[in-house]
Amino acid sequence: MTATSSTDASPKATPPSRLTLPIVLIAQFVTPMAIAGTAIALPKISGDLGAQPAALQWVVNGFNVAFALGVLACGSLSDRIGYRVTFALGAILFATGSVVSAAAPTLVVLDVARIIAGLGAAAILTGASSILSRTFEGSARTQAFALFGTVNGLGLALGPTISGLLVAGVGWRGVFLVQAAVLALAALGSRVLPSAANATMKPTDGKRASILDLSFLRNREFLAMCLVPVAGSIGFVTLLTYLPSALSGIKSMSPGVAGLTMLAMTIPVLVAPTLVAKLVNTVRFVNVGTVVYVSLVALILGNIGILLLAESRSVSWIIIPMILLGLGFGLPIGLVDGHALAVVPAERTGSAAGLLNFFRVGSEALFVAGYAFILSVLVGQQLTGTAADDTAAGQPGHPELYRSAFNTTVAGLVGLLVVLTIVIVLVHSKKVTRPGNSGGS
User: Nearest-CA neighbor of 390 among 402, 406, 400?
Assistant: First the structure.
């Protein structure tokens, strides 16, 4: 890793305003909501702008890909220009992309606008996590990241519901206008955010850090924290996205009832981060390692339990597994971010946050797409044509075929989770590298 000046000389952030958390959190809420909720507007968008499959999917994929790649560039950039500036630029960029999205006359324009918004979302996430890491200390820091995790979980869990209500009430263009309005307020409010003089930190050898600085991964503690969100992507985000389709395809459940059933997965995500923050601050044996291991076990058991979903069984059989899935995802949210940024040099938190979030966002995009592909292939081995497409999409009619494909796909997720859990335990059990020496092992 490129040598840096001592962290002892790291400049201190200015005292936080009471508005710091509200401004950061309200902007951060929009990002996961945009990820999880945009897809629900696609039918209306296709009715207005056309139904070209590739262009339509890039309304969602363009945002996600730009977001995943953008966190790397924004991480390095924020260490140079400052975290508050990065956050503000991100809010402006996201708001601009949302306004253009709302006014888009064609799918091509909409796709470009979503890419712009995705880059803005990357800057918001990187700036927000770095601001919290540099501004708060001790129990206040733990609580701040707990709220950060809760808001991320809330946006992810409620994104489809909120977007659906907005589509019904103000149309799909109105969804993007609401996002733009919220982010415009965050951009204006960014003026009161604390500003650390991180941009004045210079590498001692005169070289700039690269955008993708993999030397952070030599720090085993940081690497372990990067792998935890990957487990969440495999074991939770995939099912959050496609379990409603399984409930429809296997149990012929309506979208409304399926949405209510999904609360068993999403409510634990909302309450777990705050609960964990209190336990970490008050109970001696509860620490980051404990929380991570419990969450990994919960994800594995939850995915195994989901295999009980069948056309001949009551949905009540999978309620406890769904709760375990929510806890497995929700317990380490925020805590992982705070700890990961605490074990790297203070002047490099932006780059570290970018790499951490690349693992998170990139793995979500990869495994959600991989899940859909594998399930479609398995269904396609039994059916062809429209019947295969409809069944893979969760349309009722062939519950036994969908269940077979679903079980095989989820079993694959369980295998991946077990392997990743072993890797995390092995990595985390090694000697931890301390802040200021993230290049060591």
Answer: 402
Judged on CB neighbours under 10 Å (0-12, 13-18, 19+), 440 is middle
Digit-coded pLDDT (tens) for 378-406: 988 988 887 887 777 777 888 999 899 99
CB neighbour list of residue 395: distance below 8 Å, 6 or more residues apart:
248, 249
Strand partners, 124: none
Output the pTM of the full model.
Answer: 0.72
Q: Please provide the average confidence, as pLDDT, over all residues in the chain.
A: 81
3-state secondary structure of 4: strand
The answer on pLDDT for 78 being more than 50 is yes
Q: Give one DSSP letter per residue of 29-73, joined into a string.
A: HHHHHHHHHGGGGHHHHHHHH---HHHHHHHHHHHHHHHHHHHHH
> What is the per-residue pLDDT for 13?
47
HSE-up (13 A, CA, CB side) for residue 376 = 12
* Residue 169 CB coordination number (10 Å): 10
Domain extents in the chain: 13-195, 214-428
Question: DSSP for 134-194?
Answer: HH--HHHHHHHHHHHHHHHHHHHHHHHHHHHHHHHHHHHHHHHHHHHHHHHHHHHHGGGS-
CATH fold label, 13-195 = Growth Hormone; Chain: A; (1.20.1250)
| Residue 323 token pair | 């709760």
Is 214-428 a CATH 1.20.1250.20 domain? yes
- Residue 312's contacts (CB-CB under 8 Å, 6 or more residues apart) are none
Q: SS3 for 203?
A: strand
